[in-house]
Amino acid sequence: MGTLRERIMLLILVSANFYRSFARDIITPTQSLADGEKLVSAGGSFTLGYFSPRKTANRYVGIWYNKITEQTVVWVANREKPITSNTTSLIINSQGTLSITDQNSTVIWSMNSTTVKNPIAQLLDSGNFVVKDANSKSADSFSWQSFDYPTDSLLPGMKLGWNLQAHVSHNLTSWKSDSDPSPGPFSLAIDIRGGRELTQFDGSDQSWRSGLWNGIEFNGIPDLKTYGDFILTFVNSTDEVYASYRMANPSTIVRIIMNYTGRTERYIWIDSSNAWNLIWSTPDSRCDPYNSCGSYAICHSNSLPVCQCLPGFEPKFPDDWAKRDTSGGCIRKTDLDCANGADGFMKVSNVLLPDSLVAKIYAGMSLGECRANCLRNCSCAGYANSDVRNGGSGCVMWVSELNDIVQLGDTGQDLYYRLAAADIAAVPSTDKSHNKSKATIAIIVSLVLGALMLACISCCVWRKKEKWRRENLKEESIEDEDIELPLYGLDIVISATDNFSTENKLGEGGFGPVYKGKLRDGQDIAVKTLSKTSNQGIDEFKNEVLLIAKLQHRNLVRLLACCTQREERMLIYEYMPNKSLDALLFDKAKSINLDWRTRFHIIIGIARGLLYLHQDSRFRIIHRDLKASNVLLDSEMNPKISDFGLARIFGDDEAATRTRRVVGTYGYMSPEYAMDGIFSVKSDVFSYGVLALEIISGQRNKGVFLSEPHANLLGKAWNMWNEGKGMELIDPSIGSDFSYDEVRKCIKVGLLCVQENPEDRPTMSSVVLMLRDERDASFCEPQQPGFTGRRDLCHPSSTNGDSTSINDISLSIQLGR
């Protein structure tokens, strides 16, 4: 009998433990949640329970991802009142009030809701913790929800903004530190005082803003979307103003966080690497801090100097500007004459529109009506479209100083700012919009006549000064086809490089020698000089300036300035402390610094840079010389594609073209380009595939004329893949610390990119998606690579069967190490 009683008691204990471990998603008035217990949403996406941040024994009730091994907390209930004992419970009473109480029924935290008859608290699969009527049939009828009280994280479906009827804001507020979830100094909110902008605050001080919503995106952060499956929405009604997002693929795990470091960041979870991947953040450039250049100035993150006055303006405090203190901003060169209708407007394109705190928005106006209203209002400093869809509509007018204007490269909007007629006449621009009244014409004619008289009187003096200026040029801005790039005098470059000393020589590029330098403000630079014996000449020099000056991407090298004084031709770039990829990759002693995580990061970064060139930039650009020596590495091993001297711009409707002058490097050239002179975006894809296989293997791909079929890297990789020995391709210096799935995926992507037929190769957008996808089941199987036996290299033929000859070939041969 005793034995039977013991068995019954054991069964009861086992049943109780099983019940306690069974995942539930609700709390009822009769069933609370104690420390050690947890709720799991119905789909298994989120967990609600008790946790302690690292370095502290304090306990908090929070929500985190259930299927992710790294505990990532996205909401905290009692962030201001930590629990110091383990005898607390999360309860809901019969009126629907949520609270955390201790063993003495002392309330540590509580949240009131509207009264419901049969209240329950439920954790939804969206990560939302809600209070509702248990009998309610409505899927979104809640008396309280955690989504209305965000902490530092914004999940898909959450609203960041304002409930105007209740006068309640839904903001993100950072943790105080990585171990203290109490509210920190940084917050992200929708600022509704003027226009409607995402704004980041440090305490009460504005530290960053997104720009106005223009119907498609926030004007200043077009890269927030990054990928097509990120769907951003913005609602601006009389009841509420908010921004929200969702993922086209609900299985993609994404979060936006207001970090305790003061940065707003967006992460995506990568299953294959079991880690969060940062895909967007701000502030991220020198122009992101709010109004860093002051009023009536424009910030250029990729130029020197960074801050420049708008045309028609000059520094308010020139001495401070000379010391790089631009906070005082700029003032007009000529006072406005609004009373006589003599003012006009200048257009500046592709900018983050000014701070909308002093802006008025009129959705029903056309741009012409907006201009007319601004012209009549003497307080109006500028105007723009409020909606860029369908060619533009709506009106934004700024009725005070213009602050925080940023040049955004090939994105952004057009801003029309008010300027005196005299200054409009003095500014060389095709984008003038001014009042053509008789008074204006009279002023302009008078100014022109006066200028002619002065020119006649001072012609000789001017010539002498001009000659002196050419010989002693310090630093100024040049314009060429809408490009503004600082022009350095030769003396600046000589001083920076210590007269081109051999100690500062970094190497030899396609143009000529490359030197390290340091400007007077301490910035390190790389100076690329055009050698008189270089295979590349003035055309390539100009081509590189024209192209890269218009490109802005984190995986493209940044051109700072150029020098064209006398017969010198030099390009000044940001300095890359880790130099070129080939210097590390093909050196046995140095390649040990390239572990698999770094190599995978480089492979993805190069793919993103090429995707920008092919699809996302202002132009459709074919690089034509992508190779390991043209990939530079910054201090954090981020790859930067460089050397655009051979690049070509393609039209939107242009698929491929043929050239009689084949340029580039054998070993990286696609078969159709090397043999027939035909190049397209798929030529760059081929080069990328070669480069990816080199990064994996640590081996150079030999020039095709120097190797037997199947003896070069492509043939070796192809044979290993077909024999099921693909993993033997890995560079031994990587060691054993790598992801099998990632390596296999990268080899497969590399082989897909080097297929013989250009039509079989993926686009770079497909490559980026494949590299992000932890699965490769959807990948098609690669076909035989080019230069491995299908084509007769001694008797090349064109794609249409007719013979062709390449009369002008400029290339270099890659030898094995």
TrEMBL record:
* Residue ranges, annotated region (Disordered): 782-801
Q: What's this protein's family per the entry?
A: Belongs to the protein kinase superfamily. Ser/Thr protein kinase family.
Name the source's superkingdom.
Answer: Eukaryota
User: Per the UniProt entry, what species is this protein from, by scientific name?
Assistant: Asparagus officinalis (Garden asparagus)
User: What protein is this chain from?
Assistant: Receptor-like serine/threonine-protein kinase
Q: Does the keyword RNA-binding apply?
A: no
Domain (Bulb-type lectin): give its ranges.
24-144
Q: Where are the transmembrane segments?
A: 439-462
Gene Ontology BP term (one): recognition of pollen
